[in-house]
From TrEMBL:
This is DUF427 domain-containing protein. It comes from Sphingomonas aliaeris. Residues 3-88 form the DUF427 domain. Pfam families: NTP_transf_9. It comes from the Bacteria.
Length: 93
């Protein structure tokens, strides 16, 4: 079981993550969506496509753009479609 934690809260947990470039991508249904806020941030990866971001909010503390996902990745990254990955202090293990 792989777990993502930030600020003392479990934000995602699954035994079905996909690892790409060292990042665990969690299925959308394994993520606690109540801890996420929408973000206007987007980035582009030449081989994965366009990523969208979410801000994590736990106990009133915000971690801007700490979660990202590819809603419609390029074919080479199809396995991570709709899955979430984390950074900015989120502990995954």
């Amino acid at each position: 079981m792989t777990t993502a934690r930030w600020n003392g809260a479990v934000i995602a947990q699954s035994d079905d993550t996909v690892v790409v470039e060292g990042n665990h991508y969690f299925p959308a249904d394994s993520v606690d969506a109540s801890l996420f806020e929408d973000s206007d941030t987007h980035t582009h990866c030449p081989w994965k496509g366009d990523a969208s971001y979410k801000t994590i909010v736990v106990d009133g503390e915000r971690n801007p753009n700490a979660a990202w996902y590819y809603a419609d990745p390029k074919a080479a990254a199809a396995e991570i479609k709709g899955r979430f990955a984390f950074w900015k202090g989120v502990e995954v293990g």
